[in-house]
Amino acid sequence: MAVRRLMRAVQVFEFGEPDVLKVHEDVPVPIPGKNQVLIKVHACGINPVETYIRAGVYARKPSLPYIPGSDVSGIIEKLGKDVTSFKIGDRVFATSTVTGGYADYTVSSVDTVYPLPEQLSFKQGAAISVPYFTAYRALFQKAHGKPGETVLVHGASGGVGIAACQIARAYGLTVFGTAGTNDGLDLVLQNGAHQVFNHRENDYIQKIQQATGGQGVNVILEMLANVNLRNDLPLLSVGGRVIIIGSRGPIEINPRDTMAKESSIIGVSLFSATEEDRKEAAAALFAGMEAGWLKPLIGPEYSLENAAQAHVDIIQTGGATGKMIFVI
């Protein structure tokens, strides 16, 4: 009888604080099913949404126990039945996993797996999925941004923020970005923003309004709506759109702030994307890889053994710079 191979994986047996993230070294390596592939994971992205799921406060709760993680990069080790689009040994990144990405190996459905171009490292491959697909969805599928419009990326030095700046600049939008540290501001400028603003300064909202000539911004990509949404609404132009990418709690707003300008508040979630949405985004992003402007910026790196600390840091660390990843 064949003996199942074992691997390391971070498993969650109960919802709660970061310390529920435990590394186990005796987890069976998953077996790919029909139209699935087994990936030897080299790197895995760390996303704020994974902390909400782990805490049990997210709308979608996985069955316990589970392995967190969705955006992985690595090498295909085994093909499931009917897989013809990949071969063993291919370098790939995935936008989703079936069995979880905080692990040595993971299984993904082939429709969520993409070839990783040679010019991008495995670390960069793990920083494509959630940041770039989210940024594209927010900018174009939800905000319907157009060349010539002005976009404010609020919290632009994190993974999604950097991705949004690169994409918006490449597609002809005027890009404003905010960050909370000098290093963060420099990174945002280096990655596509035309102007940057320090959101720790008391008058930064007025500075942004002045930079628009009093016209307001057309689109705001909002990473922390529970802090900023009240200030976002007066910043909008006529017909302006705030796209909610992240929020860590409630906020009180005045709905009248949306009326005179006929502005909109729109939520975004990759979980709601259709297959057609994902294909469109992938095509646009691969064009960016070929053109050379899609360059994921890697932030802090962690081992699986430091998963709990990573979940603390991604929520508590101010002035995020780049995409947090596990190196496996």
Could you characterize the architecture of this molecule?
The protein is of the alpha/beta class. Helix content is 28%, strand content 27%.
- The helix tally amounts to 9
Helix-strand makeup class: alpha/beta
The stretches of 5 or more residues where confidence is low (pLDDT under 50) are none
- The N- to C-terminal Cα distance equals 30 Å
Task: Report the average pLDDT across residues.
Answer: 95
Secondary structure elements and their pairing?
Blueprint (H helix, E strand, L loop, with lengths): L5 E6 L10 E7 L7 E10 L2 H8 L16 E8 L11 E4 L10 E5 L3 E3 L6 H4 L3 H14 L7 E5 L4 H12 L3 E6 L2 H9 L4 E4 L5 H8 L5 E6 L2 H11 E9 L19 E4 L7 H17 L6 E5 L4 H10 L6 E5 L1
Parallel strand pairs: 8-9, 8-11, 9-10, 11-12, 12-13, 14-15
Antiparallel strand pairs: 1-2, 3-4, 3-6, 3-15, 4-5, 5-7
Helix pairs in contact: 3-4, 3-8
Short précis:
This protein is an alpha/beta fold and 328 residues long. It has helices at 48-55, 122-125, 129-142, 159-170, 182-190, 204-211, 225-235, 275-291, 307-316; strands spanning 6-11, 22-28, 36-45, 72-79, 91-94, 105-109, 113-115, 150-154, 174-179, 195-198, 217-222, 236-244, 264-267, 298-302, 323-327.
Question: Tags for this entry?
Answer:
globular, alpha/beta, 6-stranded parallel sheet, 15 strands, 28% helix, 328 residues
